[in-house]
Specification:
The complex is a heterodimer. Chain A has 13 helices and no strands. By secondary structure, chain A is mainly alpha-helical. The termini of chain A are far apart. By secondary structure, chain B is mainly α. Chain B has a two-stranded antiparallel ribbon. In chain B, a hairpin with a 4-residue loop joins strand 1 and strand 2.
Chain lengths: 291, 284
């Protein structure tokens, strides 16, 4: 009896310690978000203070209002078009990856054809070689095609470099569909494309969802390519606009920067909280493909 | 059937294979950004970048960053994975979610948020450190290479520890409960079980996490760009931040392409190690 009681005590202490540690870590991890959100809503005079104000003192929507309005002064950043650009590129890039990855993943999963392995490794190798290392030739190529400062350049690059993971996830999803289903459809006279659309696609919703969620977050967050390929302010994406809002040693408007920051992270965080399963399965798939 | 793979293949060839080969050509030329043309120079670009002090120091900085950040990521990734792994713990999925959240936001935003936190005049971090008497005067985080690097490393830990947690957690979940029970019956202590059971059984997850973190670290750009922008005086340039400035501020595309070749060689070596390591681990 005494042994059991002691064991229970140990287990209970262990659990309490785990809770404490988790709570502490959780607070530390969330603090930067808390800080950004309260400062996005504080009036200017309560933001840059010493000592700093750790609670939401005063309330204003002036920073958000500024983002959604046309700037009155020359040299101020106009954020509205950037949000539209980010949404457009995000949507186009995600749809592009979903379509291309589903088609290729399907072909590689279902069909035997000469060059099948070559296609697989060609697409997948774009994952081993980082696009960051191809800045110069990509810029030169887009220059030649007249696509610098055109959203199409970003969309094409994003599709090319985010499709390998998508294709990998889609191929694995299609692999789980029993081959007999295709056979019976074929006997009933369905063509290749019909089988793909009517039989295969409805059975890989989880895979397709993972690809869509993962790609949209990756495209929305991408900074380096967007910084290089878009040269006029009206074409910038939101992260690039955010980078240009912070120009030391000039006067830094932290209220505005915090508000723009909130707009850059809120969509992906909501997407993550709503569709957590897809994110986690995307990370795991990425890890498997790296093996 | 070939119609299905055509879009993928066309995209991969036009925006991956061709640029990859073109990069080699540019690295041997004095490429002009306006005329989009260049004259053959031979090895001159390579000689220039390997006598460019900032480029050499950027390789060193990126390597130092990798060496320091990866063990921290392993430590915190493993710590988070271990403290949320207990399925009897209520709310463990909530904590898992909280740890992962910073990974889904843009690197750039993460960098800026922390830049505010680090400020020496009104930033909360310095205030708290002084308030609790860890330091007397505010730290100017960007004034020395060491503190600047430390601040970027902290951003990276905050942002990616949760991602690494997920990878390691997949390993932890694959260990059958009976293994621990057997060890407990044999009287192995908690620490002993961790060292001689947990670690060896998740070694392939660990290896995977470490290699992905190493490659990721060599490609660091966004957070360095916004947090330090090379401060103090180019001491914290990474390979990519310097490549970007060389190509698009100093317009030396040839040298930029040569730097890309070096970067590709470095990440390529790790890709080979990755493939080798997993073949080894699988054989065992």
């Amino acid at each position: 009896m005494e042994f059991i009681a002691k064991n229970r005590l140990i287990r209970r202490t262990k659990r309490t310690l785990l809770y404490l540690l988790n709570t502490l870590m959780g607070i530390l991890m969330l603090f930067p978000f808390y800080w950004t959100i309260i400062n996005a809503l504080k009036p200017r005079e309560n933001i840059i203070t010493n000592p700093p104000i750790f609670y939401p003192k005063g309330f204003t929507t002036e920073h958000f209002a500024r983002i959604f309005s046309i700037p009155s002064k020359l040299g101020e950043i106009h954020y509205l078009p950037m949000m539209k650009n980010s949404l457009f590129i995000g949507t186009a890039g995600t749809m592009g990856v979903c379509i291309v990855a589903a088609l290729t993943g399907y072909a590689l999963s279902v069909k035997e054809f000469p060059g099948r392995k070559a296609v697989f490794y060609l697409v997948l190798s774009a994952m081993l070689i980082p696009f960051q290392a191809l800045l110069v030739p990509l810029f030169s190529e887009m220059n030649l095609l007249g696509l610098v400062d055109n959203h199409l350049s970003l969309i094409l690059i994003y599709i090319t470099f985010f499709q390998p993971l998508g294709m990998f996830i889609m191929k694995n999803s299609f692999d789980t569909i029993p081959k007999a289903m295709y056979e019976s459809a074929r006997i009933e006279g369905c063509g290749d494309y019909q089988i793909f659309q009517r039989i295969a696609l409805p059975n890989v919703k989880m895979g397709l969802g993972t690809v869509a969620v993962f790609t949209s977050a990756a495209v929305w967050n991408e900074f380096l390519m967007a910084l290089i390929f878009m040269t006029s302010q009206s074409k910038f994406t939101l992260p690039v606009g955010l980078a240009f809002s912070h120009q030391p040693p000039f006067d830094i408007n932290w209220g505005l920067i915090s508000a723009v920051s909130v707009l850059t992270f809120l969509p992906t965080i909501m997407l993550f909280i709503g569709l957590r399963k897809y994110f986690i399965s995307g990370v795991t798939a990425g890890a498997i493909s790296a093996e | 059937m070939y119609l299905f793979v055509t879009p993928s293949v066309i995209l991969s060839i036009s925006f991956f294979v061709i640029p990859f080969l073109h990069n080699l050509i540019i690295s041997f030329c004095n490429w002009n950004i306006i005329t989009n043309n260049g004259k053959f120079l031979g090895l001159e670009n390579y000689i220039r970048i390997f006598t460019d002090k900032i480029f050499l120091s950027s390789i060193l900085t990126t390597t130092q960053y990798t060496i320091f950040v990866v063990p921290f990521l392993l430590f915190f990734g493993l710590l988070f994975a271990l403290i949320v792994n207990d399925s009897n713990l209520r709310g463990n999925s909530l904590f898992q979610m909280i740890y992962f959240i910073p990974w889904v936001i843009p690197w750039l935003t993460a960098g800026l948020i922390w830049r505010f936190l680090y400020n020496d005049l009104y930033g909360p971090l310095n205030y708290l450190l002084i308030h609790f008497r860890f330091i007397e005067k505010p730290i100017l985080f960007l004034s020395t290479k060491m503190t600047a690097m430390a601040s970027v490393i902290l951003v990276c830990i905050w942002k990616t520890a949760g991602y690494n947690m997920v990878i390691l957690l997949a390993g932890l979940k694959s260990i059958p409960e009976q293994v621990y029970e057997a060890a407990a019956i044999d009287g192995a202590s908690g620490w002993k079980r961790f060292i001689s059971i947990t670690i060896p059984l998740i070694r392939s997850s660990i290896a995977l996490m470490v290699i992905m973190a190493v490659v990721g670290s060599y490609l660091a750009f966004d957070h360095f760009w916004i947090v330090t922008r090379g401060a103090p005086s180019h001491e914290t340039e990474t390979i990519l931040t310097w490549l970007y400035q060389t190509s698009f501020f100093r317009f030396r595309l040839g040298e930029g392409a040569a730097m890309s070749v070096v970067l590709l060689a470095i990440t390529g070596i790790f890709a080979v190690i990755q493939v080798r390591a997993f073949n080894l681990l699988k054989l065992k």
